[in-house]
Amino acid sequence: MTVKHILIIDGHPDADGGRFVHALADRYAEGADAGGHSVRRIEIATMAIDPLTSRHEWEEGSPSPAIAAAQADILWAEHIVLLYPLWLGDIPALLKAFFEQVMRPGFAFRYRAGGLPEKKLKGRTAHIVVTMGMPALLYRTFYGAHSLKSLERNILKFVGIAPVRRSVIGNVEGDGDIRDYWLKRMAASGRAGR
To answer: If you placed Cys at 118, which of 48, 59, 110, 189 could pair as Cys (CB 3.0 to 4.6 Å)?
Structure first.
């Protein structure tokens, strides 16, 4: 097994330690530590993230110190684990604001004349973990996992982060057995660095 630099992005906007996403992030980190990997964490709930309101601000504005530190962590990482709850069928607004701030032109990609942008974050892999109250099968089949596919294609792969693994965890609010299963699975994924 290859030892990796792993960045865990805990994308739950609520800092309440009782949130299942936080427990999953903790278990992944414990597993990664046990596997000998180097681990850094970003916790969205603890960051002051302003939404961008103009293209000029996105292209020309300077990132805040917290966003610049997050960018440094992304550059350091070989593997990124992103965990978040599904809210209104999508990623929470604070996590979206984080991506808008972090994935700026010049850092995550570079415009090229007459062609597709250069992907500046190649060489990194990712694992997306999304939790929800509905059954995971319903999200995948009826809703087509649309927001998950959008995050993967329109943000991560757009900047060169690939391949991307997915874990869709449903029924988290009512089934303790499902939560226990996924906590163990996250620890195993952390040990394996995937």
So the answer is: 110
Q: How far apart are CA 86 and CA 148, in angstroms?
A: 9
Entry pTM: 0.94
Q: Give the separation between CA 118 and CA 110, rounded to whole angstroms.
A: 5
Find residue 38's DSSP bridge partners: 5
> Is pLDDT at 131 greater than 80 in this prediction?
yes
pLDDT 10s digits, 42-68: 999 999 999 999 999 988 999 999 999
pLDDT at 172: 85
Sign, CA torsion 5/25/15/91: positive
**CATH (domain of 141):** 3.40.50.360
Write out the H or E segment, with its range, that includes residue 43: strand 38-43
Residue 69 dihedral angles phi and psi, to the nearest 5°: -65, -40
Q: Rounded to whole angstroms, how far apart are CA atoms 20 and 23?
A: 5
Residue 116 or 78, more confident: 78
Note the helical H segments in 103-175: 136-141, 146-150
